[in-house]
Amino acid sequence: MAEVKSDIEIARGANKKPIQEIGAKLGIPAEHLLPYGHDKAKISADFIRSVKSKSDGKLILVTAINPTPAGEGKTTTTVGLGDGLNRIGKNAMVCLREPSLGPCFGVKGGAAGGGYAQIVPMEDINLHFTGDFHAITSAHNLLSAMIDNHIYWGNALEIDTRRVAWRRVMDMNDRALRQIVCSLGGVTNGFPREAGFDITVASEVMAILCLASDLKDLESRLGDIIIGYRRDKSAVYARDIKADGAMAVLLKEAMAPNLVQTLENNPAFVHGGPFANIAHGCNSVVATTTALKLADYVVTEAGFGADLGAEKFFDIKCRKAGLKPAAAVIVATIRALKMNGGVKKEELGTENVEAVTKGCANLGRHIENVKQFGVPAVVAINHFVSDTDAEIAAVKAYVERTGAEAVVCLHWAKGSQGTVELAEKVVELAESDAAQFSPLYADEMPLFEKINTVVRRIYRGSEAIADKAVRDQLHQWEQAGYGNLPVCMAKTQYSFSTDPNLRGAPTDHVVPVREVRLAAGAGFIVAICGEIMTMPGLPKVPSSERIMLNDAGYIEGLF
């Protein structure tokens, strides 16, 4: 039996082409590529402006069932589908988020695909890449420093130190920093107050970079950030302390999309990376809209299951950027469906058609939800060697009863050869013009009603509940002119409910909204539900314990 190579071994053996050749495939002249080494580059703002008048290609969203420890492979499928479309003669590219260091060294690992459906250079993409996340972290924390500095030097804006709304960030999982007290140590260090850290991918600066249309829009949105409130509860903005210009300077390079390639030398934009359970979970608008001008098919993904990533992709990103997706792919694995059907992880290798069928309720819910947005969907069964013919047949039969189709995909083992059937089905759906996209709710709907609409129509809960203080806060924001913003639900990714252990397709559960945050620059309201944390912690045995340099100086343990 042939040895199965690890993802990092496959990536290291890639036959990469110079990034200028990849750019040439898209019609990007070499002078408009800002290279970072030989295998990655940023795209110039001048080139992006030059293609704005071109017609758009077809936008394909890849989403998934609720994630389980068994794995689903959404990024892998996105890359595999992009390669598959190119294999059948289509001009296609993929648009992905940049991975966060937190999951890389925590539990989840990287986000560059897997097996023979990867983007490369894998190590760079999963680690420091082109420095975008570091720039976002620096811009965010510059604002934090300027707030405390303003207060120290007399507080001319009369910021109420009890109502500073701007926390700090770092791109790492560190539970010890969730709640802190800063400015201790005496008069020269400022005025002590409670504060805290979020992970960088939860930063409003990250969301702003991913939703801004250009540098001018970026700076304007940065100025709109609410940093805190006065004693009379009037808002203080980032532009009030003159932070927006300097923050934009730090983000100038980060605003440009990053061009890399798949293992099969097809182009990919990898840019931005808000988390999907605590932010809006999509790559940048600039990358997606530029890709649509350069390719006939653009395959993108939204984080975690369709209840989080796809809903936010449709209700936030597409609404704000005027995007109209042509089709969606919902990724599932037999193993994950078994877990949704009640099977323990250690028993997933044993055939269990009954559990697969039971677990299909989760898949069926996601199919229904995607169709609510007027987007036709196909199911991609990401194949594992332990899958049996009877289990696959059960999934296909279930999906057929929903009016959709399920396709077995072997991209992890075979690359584009394993996604030809999926690519053909996606083309069929996209070219049929069956999509009649519309968001779930209207802009003018009251904020709490928007939250309730997502709870009832997407999560199938009975209602959202919130303390009077939360409801009053939403009403105040409506009175201040923010009532037309969409809502960004911060919720566990593992369930339609707020209980991560409640798998399958639960109904009539209550969704508690613990806190709401106004992201005025990004342009949405964050509703924090249940026990979700905006700064994750590391597990008992983090992945970082297995990541090291070997004797040859190569990285081992990254996945």
TrEMBL record:
Q: What is this protein called?
A: Formate--tetrahydrofolate ligase
Q: Which Pfam families match?
A: FTHFS
The answer, when asked if ATP-binding is one of the entry's keywords, is yes
Entry EC number(s): 6.3.4.3
In its keyword annotation, does this UniProt entry include Transcription?
no
Keyword annotations: ATP-binding, Ligase, Nucleotide-binding, One-carbon metabolism
The record's section on NCBIfam families has: PRK13505.1 (NF010030)
Pathway per its UniProt entry is: One-carbon metabolism; tetrahydrofolate interconversion
GO biological process terms on file: tetrahydrofolate interconversion
Q: Which family does it belong to?
A: Belongs to the formate--tetrahydrofolate ligase family.
Q: Which residues bind ATP?
A: 68-75
Q: Which GO terms describe its molecular function?
A: ATP binding; formate-tetrahydrofolate ligase activity
Q: Which reaction is this enzyme known to catalyze? A: (6S)-5,6,7,8-tetrahydrofolate + formate + ATP = (6R)-10-formyltetrahydrofolate + ADP + phosphate
Q: Which InterPro entries does the annotation name? A: Formate_THF_ligase, Formate_THF_ligase_CS, P-loop_NTPase
Q: HAMAP family, per this entry?
A: FTHFS (MF_01543)
